[in-house]
Amino acid sequence: MDILSTMVQLAAAFAVGFYYGRRKVFTEDSNARISRFVVNAAMPAMILSILNKIDPAEAEAHGTLVWKIFIFGFLMYAFVLALSFPLGALLDAPQGCKRVVRNGIIFSNMGLIGFPIMNALLGPIAVFYSTPLVIHFNLFFYSVGIYFAEKDAGLKTKFRWRSFVNPGLIACMIGMAMFLTGWRLPEIVYKGVDFIGSIATPLSIVIIGASLGLADLKKMFNQRIYYRIAAVRLILMPLLTFLAAYFVLKDNIAVSAVVLGAATPIASCVAMSSADKPSQNEFAAQMVSLTTLLSSVTIPVWALILKAVYA
Predict the structure, then answer these.
(1) Distance of CA 198 to CAs 193, 261, 264, Å?
(2) What separation, in Å, do the N-terminal and C-terminal C-alpha atoms of the chain show?
(3) Which one of 1, 7, 78, 198 has the minimum C-beta count within 10 Å?
(4) What is the dihedral of CA 86, 111, 128, 191, to 10 degrees?
(5) Averaged pLDDT, groups of 10, the chain, 311 residues long
């Protein structure tokens, strides 16, 4: 019932966004602007709000496991990065989009979709366990991910340290400081942060639905490459994550959290990083849209599998 209730809420927000996307109430420009607000304000606020609810004693009790997840997450990202080269070649992506496909294999929408689902099904501790993965996501995306997107577009890219400093990463670092020190936000600050964070999930799902509403659905559904990418992102990646986490992390909530994060669709920032590159824009947007749509089926399946394993 928890799984069903969560997915119904997400589906309702998705349907509203899709409808207003088809009606052109939302546009590509408005979606991009709202997405920046969600990524830079609402989502960091949601992360802080969730982590602030965790009891300091509980956080201290799980400290060793969090550091284990930190190391596990880095090695997993490095492994998937290496794996994306042969998998990307096997998927036979069109010329000029091969590295964008690698980004789709590597980066899941763990924050916008994964965190709300983890919080609903597993509780705030699952989000706490996943914060090290967000740090690694930023580390890899703002280096390798941006490099791949710009190389596909034939651009010369420069390494910039400031690219790593963003509100999502800052929120995770503050969350880690809460874990290490037991400090919590003052009540008046927490209420404001919680209020802003509460709109992150519905607004992000509405915008994802609107993006799909603006997409050329016939073209998207008729190209097999998108289904092959979806199979890798939604089935193979969470399966590999589960096999590794089951034997390394062992804790049922930690394993479930990282698997649910891996089971989410391609991260929206993969499309956003290609939005200003004409040859890659449509391909990346449709790749994200189809995996988002199909994940409404695959995420509940993975949740049920995890429930059966740890019953």
Answers:
(1) 9, 20, 20
(2) 15
(3) 1
(4) 170
(5) 70 88 88 78 82 74 83 94 91 82 90 80 84 80 77 64 69 77 87 89 80 78 89 96 93 93 87 64 81 88 90 72
Say how far apart CA 108 and CA 103 lie, in whole Å.
Answer: 9
Q: Which amino acid is at 210?
A: A
Question: From CA 257, how far away is CA 131, in angstroms rounded?
Answer: 10
Under a CB-based contact definition with an 8 Å cutoff, are residues 227 and 78 in contact? no
CB atoms within 10 A of CB 57: 8
Report the C-alpha gap between 205 and 19 in whole angstroms. Answer: 13
Q: Which domains does the chain have, with CATH numbers?
A: 2-309 (1.20.1530)
Q: Closest Cα partner for 264 from 73, 104, 135, 98?
A: 104
Taking alpha carbons only, the member of 127, 105, 119, 150 closest to residue 273 is 150
d(CA 144, CA 34): 25
**99-102: long-range contacts (C-beta < 8 A, 24 or more apart)?**
99/148, 99/149, 99/151, 99/152, 100/148, 100/149, 100/152, 100/270, 100/274, 100/280, 100/283, 100/284, 100/287, 101/229, 101/287, 102/148
Cα–Cα dist 252/256, whole Å: 6
Q: How many CB atoms lie within 10 A of CB 159?
A: 9
Burial 203-231 (b: 16+ CB within 10 A, else e): bbbbbbbbbbbbbeeeebeebebbebbbe
